[in-house]
Amino acid sequence: MKMEKVELQADSVVFYSPRDEAQFFGWLDQMECVMEVVGRGRIIYIQIDKRRVDAEVLRDILAFFQRYRIAMEQLKVFDSEAFSTWFRRSDAYWYRSVFGARAQSSVTA
Questions:
Q1: Is the full-model pTM beyond 0.70?
Q2: What pLDDT digit, counting tens, does each position of 27-51 carry?
Q3: d(CA 59, CA 64)
Q4: Strands across the sheet containing 5-11
Q5: Distance CA 22, CA 36 (A)
Q6: What is the SS3 assignment for 14?
Q7: What is the C-alpha to C-alpha distance for residues 38 and 108, in angstroms, rounded to an integer?
């Protein structure tokens, strides 16, 4: 089965200690959906196999992006019918960061 690749970007991530940086990359290593992590300049490029993202993994990605203050609007790429019942909850902590003040009604398959 062919990988469905998505590239996410972590721009100007701030690490508060060497252990914090190690935790960042360790967390990425533990996510089975992460295929490759490459840093170029101040941007860390994270290659994700979208087929490996289930609800539990998406929740981890949301928490990871929130914790490290990575631009969350790029996570809209995971908006699908499979996650729509909880991912688009307007009272969730990530909602405004991912979808903005008002979400668009388009959910992709």
A1: yes
A2: 999 999 999 999 999 999 999 999 9
A3: 9
A4: 5-11, 43-49, 34-40
A5: 16
A6: coil
A7: 28
DSSP symbols for 71-86:
-GGGGGGG-BTTTHHH
Q: For 14-30, give one letter per residue: b (16+ CB within 10 A) or e.
A: eeeeeeeeeebeebbee
Nearest of 9, 68, 90, 83 to residue 44 by alpha carbon = 9
Number of C-beta neighbours around residue 10 at 10 A: 21
Of 67, 48, 44, 66, give the one whose Cα is nearest residue 57: 48
Token pair of 48 as six digits:
């994700």
